[in-house]
Amino acid sequence: MLQLVRRRPRFGYRRIAALLRADGFRASESRVLRLWRKEGLKVPRKKRKRRRLGVKENGCDRRRATHKNHVWAWDFVFDKTSKGTQLKWLSIVDEHTRECLALKCDRGITSEDVIDTLAELFAMHGVPEHIRSDNGPEFTAGTIRRWLEQLDVGALYIEPGSPWQNGYAESFHSRFRDEFLAVEEFESLAAARRLTAAWRDDYNHHRPHSSLGYVAPAEFATRCPASAPESLSATPQARLRSSRAAALPNPYLHNAWYRNSMLVTPIPSSTVC
């Protein structure tokens, strides 16, 4: 247990207990808590600001994700290298599975970079019904809005100055800052990318997620059924997507095709958990 605590100093006893059970130990939360207290372990609590709930239609409290690929959330987070060079991360999270689909790191990220990243994800995971974001210029740029419209993806822009309405992205960034940015030091962009890829893999496949019953997001995602229920697949919008998909070629094409096409790309059936 102490080895796990040293490796993951920001984890509490419940998450440590989940990791121990995953490794084959008989570790109930009560037993781990007794050992936790005996060793005098403690995770400093952060003071949380009291925030009012979002009230606008596009907030995550109003439009909740009910199945995989229903709503994705995206946002940016910033840090610097040890030499002071600015770094920028684009994160994209499936709100239902909590899986981090992308965590792109660069010195700067343009609207075209965002589209390229989305194009790769659409080919790998399918096209979501909605994408939630704030009103940053990278997300509200005309090129991105038109591109998403062509793909029949609903852009959910939250109310300005209301980051809590994009709560899933905010929650992910809180963990990302606390467990990664506050711990690692980046000598260069290449080092930051390498460490980011390793952390994302650990987050998706090994880190127990409290909102998922202490199951890792990737494991939770695999438990989702392979196809949407008839009630969802029979909607007019779904039938339109299917008809367009049947008329188009292999979806796993180069990003430029996604970026420049005036058609809607083939869309695999939504999966529902």
Please describe what this structure looks like:
This protein is an alpha/beta fold and 273 residues long. Among the domains are: 2-38, no CATH class; 71-222, Ribonuclease H-like superfamily/Ribonuclease H (Nucleotidyltransferase, domain 5), CATH 3.30.420.10. 41% of the residues lie in helices and 12% in strands. The protein is globular, with a radius of gyration of 20 Å. The two termini are 33 Å apart.
What order do the helices and strands come in, and which of them pair?
Elements: H1 2-7, H2 13-22, H3 29-38, E1 71-80, E2 86-94, E3 100-106, H4 111-125, E4 130-133, H5 137-140, H6 142-150, E5 154-157, H7 167-181, H8 189-205, H9 217-222, H10 230-233, H11 236-246, H12 255-260
Helix pairs in contact: 2-3
Task: Offer a few descriptive terms.
5-stranded mixed beta sheet; 41% helix; alpha/beta; 12% strand; 12 helices
* Beta-strand percentage range: 5-15%
CATH architecture of the domain at 71-222: 2-Layer Sandwich
Number of helices: 12
* Widest β-sheet, arrangement of strands: 3-2-1-4-5
- Radius of gyration equals 20 Å
Query: What's the main sheet like?
Result: 5 strands, mixed
State the end-to-end CA separation.
33 Å
CATH class call of the domain at 71-222 = Alpha Beta
Topology as a string of helices (H) and strands (E): HHHEEEHEHHEHHHHHH
Low-confidence stretches: 50-55, 241-259, 261-273
Structural class: alpha/beta
Average pLDDT, rounded to a whole number, is 76
Helix content: 40-55%
Q: How many distinct beta strands?
A: 5
Overall 3D form: globular
CATH fold name of the domain at 71-222, please?
Answer: Nucleotidyltransferase, domain 5
Q: What is the CATH H-level superfamily of the domain at 71-222? A: Ribonuclease H-like superfamily/Ribonuclease H
